[in-house]
Design a protein that fits this description.
Blueprint lengths: L3 H13 L3 H14 L10 H7 L5 H4 L4 E9 L4 H16 L4 E8 L6 E8 L2 H8 L2 H11 L3 E10 L5
Antiparallel strand pairs: 1-3, 1-4, 2-3
């Protein structure tokens, strides 16, 4: 067995000859490929598809759901309730809108959840171009909310 000083000199020598970096890189590449399915471990096409931002296969034919959690300022509640009713009713009339529900938290009377379902991305874009959606946008811009968080999801099992 080599002693520690011998190993240090060997590593220094490898670095000097630029052998260590390619060796470590090759080992890291082999290790990373262990996380890919066995049939595709050596396929760069699979790796680039796996990490691409395209979700077309995952979303094909699935509706888009948007879940909004909004914390409304108490002093703006009456204004909010009027505009969100207009937004919900207008949204339900849009082609491509499957549902638009407005829910109020049981724990906090100032917290609301909107559950929206659209046929596809075109229906979402159409929704965002409507005057009733603009009411909500302007309300947020005028600081009628403390916080608003939106999440998008693809429908998997829906009725």
């Amino acid at each position: 067995n080599p002693s520690l000083p011998q190993v240090v000199w060997c590593v220094r020598d490898m670095l000097a000859r630029s052998l260590l970096v390619p060796t470590v890189f090759a080992a890291a590449t082999r290790s990373a490929s262990a996380f890919l399915p066995r049939t595709a471990a050596s396929s760069t096409t699979y790796a680039s598809r796996a990490f691409s931002s395209s979700n077309t296969a995952m979303s094909a034919g699935k509706p888009i759901s948007i879940i909004v959690e909004a914390d409304i300022k108490p002093e703006r509640m009456d204004e909010f309730l009027e505009l969100i009713q207009k937004n919900a009713e207008g949204s339900r009339e849009e082609p491509g809108c499957q549902r638009f529900d407005v829910l109020r938290s049981q724990d906090d009377p100032n917290k609301f959840f909107f559950y929206e379902v659209y046929d596809d991305a075109d229906a979402v874009a159409h929704h965002k171009a409507q005057p009733h959606f603009d009411l909500w946008t302007k309300f947020k811009e005028s600081e009628g909310i403390n916080q608003s968080v939106s999440k998008k999801a693809y429908g998997e099992f829906m009725t």
